[in-house]
Amino acid sequence: MSNTNTSHRFSTRLSFLAAGIAMSAWAPLVPYAKERLRLDPAELGMLLLCLGIGSLLAMPATGALTSRFGCRPVILVSGAITCAVLPFLAIAPTPLMLALTLFLFGAAIGTLDVAMNVQAVIVEKNHGGAMMSGFHGLFSVGGFAGAGGMALMLWAGVGTLAAALVATGVTAAALVAAAPHLLREPPPSEGDSRMFAVPRGAVAIIGALCFACFMAEGAVLDWSALLLTSGAGLSADQGGLGYAAFAIAMTAGRFTGDKIVSRFGGRRVLLAGGLCAAAGFFTAVLAPTPLVALLGFVLIGLGASNIVPILFTAAGSQKDMPAGLAVGAISTIGYTGILAGPALIGFVAHASSLQAAFAGLGCAMLLVAASSRSRIAAGA
Question: Which residues form the Major facilitator superfamily (MFS) profile domain (predicted)?
Answer without folding.
Answer: 8-380
